[in-house]
Every structure is written in C-alpha cells, then in structure tokens.
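Folds abound. Consider this:
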Amino acid sequence: TPENLKAYAKYFVKYIQAYAEHGITVNQLHVQNEVFADQKFPSALWDSEALKVFIRDYLGPAFDEAGLDTDIWLGTLNGPEDMAWTGGGYGMTLNNYNRFVDNILFDDGARKYIKGIAYQWAGQNCIARTHESWPEIELIQTESECGTGDNSWEYAEYIFHLINHYFRNGATAYTYWNMILDDQDSTWGWWQNSLFTITADKHEVRRNPEYYVMRHFSHYVRPGAKVLGTTGHFNSMAIAFRNPDGTVVVVAQNALDEERPFEFADPDAAERGFKVTLAPRSFNTFVLD
C-alpha cells in the first residue's frame, strides 16, 4: 500500500542517516537482495512494476527530500520473473528477464534515480544486452555462482569464464561467494564452494582452486583499471586491463589438456608484445610495464 511504501522509503533514509552519524558512509543502496527468491530467512519478492513504482514514487523522492547522495541501484537481480530452482541452478526465460529490467528503465521517472544494476547468477545471460542498451548505467556482479562444495579445478575454470564474461560485458566489479566455509555438512542444506576451507578435525586452512582464480585478477588488476578490447583465438580465454598507472595486465587461461602458445601485442606500444607457452589447464597473469 502507499502507506507501507512511504514508511519503507523513510526506513532506508533513517538507516543511511544513522550510519552517517557513526562516520560510516553508505554510497550505494541495493533496494532488495535477490528480488525473485523466497528464502528461509526474511525475504521480499518484487515484480518489475512494484519495484519501479517504489523507486520512482517513494524511494527516490525520499532521498531527494533528505538531501542524500547515496546511489540507488536496481538489484540484486538473481533471475527473471518466472525463474525456478532446479537443484543445480536457476532455470530462466531470457525474454522475461529483459522485460523486467526494460519495464523499469524505460520509465524516465524511475530511470533518473537508478545509478546501476547489480546482477548475479542468471544475470550472466542478459548483462551483454543491458550494457549494449544502457551503456551509461554501471553494472556489477554481486554473487559468484558457488557450485556444490566440491571445490574442483573444473569449477574454478568455469569461474574464470564467468569473471571474463562479466568484465567483457560491462561489469566494473565481481563479487565472490563464499569466502570461508568449514568442511562439515551445510546447515543451509546446499553445500557450496569457498575460497578457503577450515577443516573441522585439524582446524587447518586450505586454499581452494577458486582462491587462485580470484587472486589472478584482484592482486594485479587495480581499482580504476579499464578493460581493453582484444581479438584473437584466445579471446574467450583471456582478458587485458590497463591500470591507472599505465601498466597492462593480461590474464589468460589454457583450458586444454596440452600446452598452447600464447601471444599478446599492444598496438599502442609494440615493446609490450610477448610470446609464451601456457601450461595445460592453467591460469596465468602477465604484468607489462
């Protein structure tokens, strides 16, 4: 009801103001985590029309009235309106996903308040279209697909593909899920992958394959880096960034069971070219001054 939506918008204003009183700046507000998921913990399902009306008529104006400069984000979007959990992932209808976003963004009153869109899971299937249609809107990936707890090298190769895919299609950040889990049965009922595993018997720390995938990107690609346009046979398995200090970082995967030659040439600086041999089933990072 309008009364509830007005109160909810006021709640967000007070939430941001309360953190500010303690010296904590909230620079982004993502209106609802996983708008399509009815979870075992407190959740809220939003259809496209309701979310549009809330942002346009209540949340945006409430921020204006309070003088807040916190960015409002559309998300997090974890699937389309008719998505269904199938036990191994989210089934989805791409057209419904696009309609969900378009219904909101084509409304000028709602669009003026939306700074970015946060995608996860099924978002990989429509982020390219969103970036092409709305290039001025910032996009981020907010939850990496977390597998089924086997922490295999094969799944790490899939995560490399996801990171590459999201960054190539406009995402400015990629968020991993989970950081640390133990090796006991999940109370969630769905065992998941993690960067680190803490063993219950010996309390040892184990780095899992996806830790190394994330490190290849996060250790060398600096905040503010730009994705470079690249071409070639390895294009789907490699990505290049230019850091703010001018260094170029090339992250390349060899997903084959054999060694493969790899060559990189920077058209703007011929001296940055190199030729190497990538080991089988490997991840590799090259930093060029």
Remarks:
- The chain has two domains: 2-224, 225-289.
- The domain at 2-224 is CATH 3.20.20.80 (TIM Barrel).
- Residues 205 and 273 are 39 Å apart (CA to CA).
